[in-house]
């Protein structure tokens, strides 16, 4: 199912943003967060804490994203910082800039982004841009299940 989650028994999803839910604003979380709805704003894990962010096939995020581990099967448009492992599943669509320590890309995933591999400590220490919407008025791409 989810490669990252299956390998770590201590990971669990504490919070769900369900399909049909749209959040306009920033989300700060700790532990596990799954997004099956839409977030227009930044999604930031509490620094220094274990975190996993899962963006399901129907999930869409436009803004900055920061997490230790991240699994994407939906759409992300913005700046992504992943300090441990980024997994892009078959329906994943990412545009913007991606800073990562390690990445797994499944067949079918699409990336239209600048990729920057960094050491785990460098990703955590990267400067945090202001919390404005980095992709003003840009439409989110649509994830096709085909």
A few lines on this structure:
By secondary structure, this protein is mostly beta strands. The protein is built from 2 helices and 13 strands.
Q: Indicate the proportion of strand residues.
A: over 45%
Order of helices and strands: HEEEEEEEEEEEEEH
Determine the N-to-C terminus distance: 18 Å
Largest sheet, strands/sense/barrel: 13 strands, parallel
Q: Unreliable stretches, pLDDT < 50, 5 or more residues?
A: 1-10, 130-137
Radius of gyration: 14 Å
Derived structural class = mainly beta
Please count the beta strands (DSSP E, at least 2 residues each): 13
Give the topology:
Elements: H1 3-6, E1 15-17, E2 22-24, E3 27-29, E4 31-35, E5 38-40, E6 43-45, E7 51-55, E8 60-62, E9 65-72, E10 75-88, E11 93-100, E12 103-105, E13 110-117, H2 120-125
Parallel strand pairs: 1-4, 2-5, 3-6, 4-7, 5-8, 6-9, 7-9, 8-10, 9-10, 10-11, 10-12, 11-13
Written account of the structure:
There is one protein chain. This protein has 146 residues and is mainly beta. Helices cover 7% and strands 47% of the residues. It contains two helices and 13 strands. The N terminus is likely disordered.
